[in-house]
Amino acid sequence: MTTERKARLIIDGGEPIEFPILSPVHGDDCIDIRTLGAKTGYYTYDSGFLSTASCQSRITFIDGDKGELLYRGYPIEQLAEKCSFLEVAYLLKNGELPDAQQKVDFENIIKRHTMVHEQMAKFYQGFRRDAHPMAVMVGVVGALSAFYNDAHDFSDAEHRSISFNRIVAKLPTIVALAYKYSHGEPFMYPRNDLSYTANFMHMMFGTPCEEYKPNPVIVHALDTIFTLHADHEQNASTSTVRLAGSSGANPYACISAGIGCLWGPAHGGANEACLNMLEEIGDVSRVPQYIKRAKDKNDSFKLMGFGHRVYKNYDPRAKLMRKVCADVLQELGLENDRLFKLALELERIALEDEYFIEKKLYPNVDFYSGIVQKAIGIPTEMFTCIFALARTVGWMVQWEEMISDPEYKIGRPRQLYVGTPKRSVPPLAQR
């Protein structure tokens, strides 16, 4: 980053006050206003932090105008096509892709950490069977700190690495147990002979009655979903994890906070909302009337799964998921399924209709990933759990980057107070 250029601020005709301009590797320049309060007694107001860079990061970069997503400099398209999810996890954690031996070693480490403490199974019994699985995950992931508290010196790189390996390994088990508990099915232990994603499917869909044999097409599809959701720069849940972690909180508690944030329908719940929308539309014959409603500014109906608040062009993840979606539907013989035909008709209209093209309301990754997960047999209420499973890699890497940054401080946003001015408390008789 360069700091030779300066931005000059003039307040009420006074002398100019200079602030360095920082130039990133990719993206927009940033004005360094860390000394603004000390120099001027003023602070910036930025609701939602839409114009504020909260940190320096080397992990992920998004160019919304170009429709570009990079993990450690690598385009997401190349990573999804050429690498497994665990290779991507290694990349995000270490900054470089693993060689053949590093890949094997890392996979073996993760495999050895997939089991959870046996007492954690009793945790699930404390929840109602009809509890939302994200509620279960918030509780269970937060509880990990009560079972695995031997590596708690987070200034030690080895301790941070142990925490990373543990939670990345255990999240598939935790998600699968939540699914099994809600369905009243017996818990399945992990299998070390399977890949990360195939093992997750075994724990989700397998039973003690017979050996579960994962379908390679489905394994690839789910592994791609994991890769595409592994990280996404400084979004709401990642910022939550960083803010929680800035206090020195246990990383398991930080991830639990991130899961809670992800649960919101404006964030990770979007693919669940998309499937609910398809159920509401119900049939291909009703698509025109719902398209008409989506175009009506006075109608509360929103077309879920289209457009993205970051990508002003086609979501690069959606391009990949579109192909995966087609492969899965063909493999499972679901090309003529009611909901899937409905989804494909919506996609066709969105890609051809001038209204959608002009507003750049292209199908996003949530649209296709929801269809794929539905086809696989994952219940709608589990969609956000799958998202959390994948994003845990990014959260942990972002947490570690923050913890190891010599400039890191506890987060303390300012506010613009607009409440009642200072006043005195009147006696009770005068109120």
**Integer average pLDDT:** 91
User: How does the major sheet shape up?
Assistant: 3 strands, antiparallel
Number of domains: 2
Order of helices and strands: EEEHEEEHHHHHHHHHHHHHHHHH
CATH architecture descriptor text of the largest domain: Orthogonal Bundle
| Number of DSSP-assigned strands | 6
Number of helices: 18
Helical residues, percent: 40-55%
User: Could you tell me how far the N terminus lies from the C terminus, measured between alpha carbons in angstroms?
Assistant: 59 Å
Summarize the structure.
With 431 residues, the protein is mainly alpha-helical.
Give an account of the 3D structure:
The structure is a single chain. The chain has 431 residues and is mainly α. It folds into two domains: 6-53, Rubrerythrin, domain 2 (Single Sheet), CATH 2.20.28; 77-408, Citrate Synthase, domain 1 (Orthogonal Bundle). Helices cover 51% and strands 5% of the residues. Helix 3 runs parallel beside helix 9 and helix 10 packs across helix 18 (383-403). The chain is globular and about 75 Å long. The N and C termini lie far apart (59 Å). The model has no long low-confidence stretch (mean pLDDT 91).
